[in-house]
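Build the 3D complex.
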Amino acid sequence: MVNTLFLPELREMLAFEQESELREFCVALNPGRTAEFMEGLDDDEMWRVLQFAEPDRRAEIFSYFDEARQLSMLASEPAAETAVLIEEIPEDDRVDLIQGLPSEAVDEILKLLPASERRNIERLRSYAEGTAGALMTTEVAKLGERLTAVEALDELGRQASDLETIYYLYVVDDNNLLRGIVSTRQLVSSIKNKSRTLGEMMETDVVVALAGEDQESVAEKVERFNLLAIPVIDSGRQLLGIITHDDVIDVVREELTEDAQRIAAVAPLEGDFLQIGLMVLSYKRGLWLTILFFAALLTAFALRHYEDELAVHGWLVWFIPLIISSGGNSGSQSATLVITAMTGGEVKLTDLPKVLSREVCVSLLLGGFLSLIGFAVAIFVAPSILAATVIPATLLAVVFCGCLCGVTLPIMFKRLGLDPALMSNPFVAGIVDILGIVIYINVARLVLG
Amino acid sequence: MVNTLFLPELREMLAFEQESELREFCVALNPGRTAEFMEGLDDDEMWRVLQFAEPDRRAEIFSYFDEARQLSMLASEPAAETAVLIEEIPEDDRVDLIQGLPSEAVDEILKLLPASERRNIERLRSYAEGTAGALMTTEVAKLGERLTAVEALDELGRQASDLETIYYLYVVDDNNLLRGIVSTRQLVSSIKNKSRTLGEMMETDVVVALAGEDQESVAEKVERFNLLAIPVIDSGRQLLGIITHDDVIDVVREELTEDAQRIAAVAPLEGDFLQIGLMVLSYKRGLWLTILFFAALLTAFALRHYEDELAVHGWLVWFIPLIISSGGNSGSQSATLVITAMTGGEVKLTDLPKVLSREVCVSLLLGGFLSLIGFAVAIFVAPSILAATVIPATLLAVVFCGCLCGVTLPIMFKRLGLDPALMSNPFVAGIVDILGIVIYINVARLVLG
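Done.
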């Protein structure tokens, strides 16, 4: 919901160029809230209001707009003003933004930036998306190990306004090699002790990320070790930058959303659902739909193969959708539970026997219960009570097979080094569909002779 | 994978009671890594190694074991030792742990704790699970607004060892009402300015959580405003505690995992997949499976209703699974995309028209493509080319309806104030199944006369 509370006032202030009121508006609230109140303005109005904020405040407010707004402003507003803004945006965010701009706009903006900033942006852009290097910021508190706590605080005071985060200090030697880290908390606890140096306080066993490391592996480390930030180093242990906790939350969200999409047989979107091109979206969905379609075609051939049985016992046809959907639903429940449990680290490859034995119990319980309902219905429809037993017997077998496929396939996929979420629910369902029909007709043959 | 590198050495040290080596082992590495190397020990060995660490270090190492290990140690080791450990565990974590212990063990441990700690635990336990109160810690840096930066740093130095996080300082008045916050970064930048007080530096427009607020709403605020911690207040604006970023990552992970489970029609597990009781698990799955089963029963009645048509045109039966699975798969793709986009904030209720118009295009593209394949197959199976057109016409209509149901139902559910993920894929598929059969037979009637 767009917050429209201040819109009339803001527009009036702009119309009458009420400079002091607009300045006041930009500082009175916290920047996130200021951005919220501006959301209803159009791009041009937003941009004009932003010009009344100090450059660092302006960048902060700007960071709370959604990406589409940010990009459309950066692409259309005067390059001189956008360059000033870009300079103030934290490094890790501005590189992401620049990746989203048309290349002419990027060239124009880069030309207007100081050489050092330009080089910095170029370097960060060179890391592949999805790696630690692409997530990091180089604005990091680096200090020498011979400083005392008080000296370090003074130095930090000088650097603090340029840094995104100062919750850890990174101790480096003269060659910029990472030697250890000191948390601000340790530093603050040590200010009474005049002679203790960073070298004496620092933790030397530091959890680090390599620049080329996959972002999911980085997020896992940050979560496991409860870090606020993780240092990024190159293969020679040179400190390149840090990745901060807010980027890690984004990675976790992205990773789990992609899982959910893969589970539903959509290739991960890598973009905003409402922004992504329709042809790209159709392709990402169509690929899997087509594969599943061919799997489903097999059911058509299976049914054709059993043509004679179905002609004699016409009532069997009525239960086909019921049977395959029961198998498919229970299978996709199992697959989703195993996939989410593996992503969350609850289930490991070695747990397969335990998972299977538990699943056998659950599937028999579920299948047994559905069989009872199915039998009650079938009695009224089938020509005899004996004939009606085909339905519960099939349901029990289909739910059992569906559940076991559902838990086994994702674990097998993971063991093969593939993404278990690729073993999507519809895929499991596709396999269970065919199994279901084969089981159904063979049970019917057995019972009905 | 359990790290077994140090296991023989550790066991030897325990056997020969090599005190200094064990002490050294507990401090040499960072606590997370120490925990990793201990994972292969059994509970008793682990506990004995832990006794060689200083109490605060012991609690830190302990925090990296998985919850099942933590609980089994706390429940079985001597109560006096567990009470010492519990005292050192951060408040928000220890309350969670205590909730998992048998109530006799809890009573025994609580009796051994100092009265203030006991009261604190009792108070935190009184907040319902899933609320801000249950996530918070009361170990928070509270300072008066008249302190200068240097005085505040001194005070913080005294408090720091007891606090979980000092990345924001909370400024309160004499009645413990929250007046504002100062980040450590602002504080450190201000140490050169001797006279500036916290009251002058503080941000007064603070993003807060109410103690009873739902944890997902808290996580959303923390993500939106990029916070490291959020203060929790009561309705009178008294500062109760803070929620730290690591708990927020857990909430995001929990929320998205529950979404994925709901999408697959499983009531959220609220527990470890391998630990949860089989009856509970069967109930959580069986509830939805049964509902879906009744939905699928309707398809049986629909098919029975069309008995005569199916008897005359037997080949129509072969395509039943293909048609309903095409509708179901495309519908569950749409539903998953919309649900994940709503969870991620990309799609709002007001976006329905835009979502629908995009979906119309995508569904016609997808349906059209599948129709072509379907037609190619049907030509070989159907008695005539005219008859074969039943298949592509039905596929197009079914995919179209499946996609539109898939995007509309979750948005409608959200508008009704319900969880859109409840409008699970199998539910969408269930509706699309019946629609599919009705469409199929009616198209067939129209074409075949």
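Strands of chain A lie at 142-143, 168-172, 178-183, 209-210, 229-233, 239-244.
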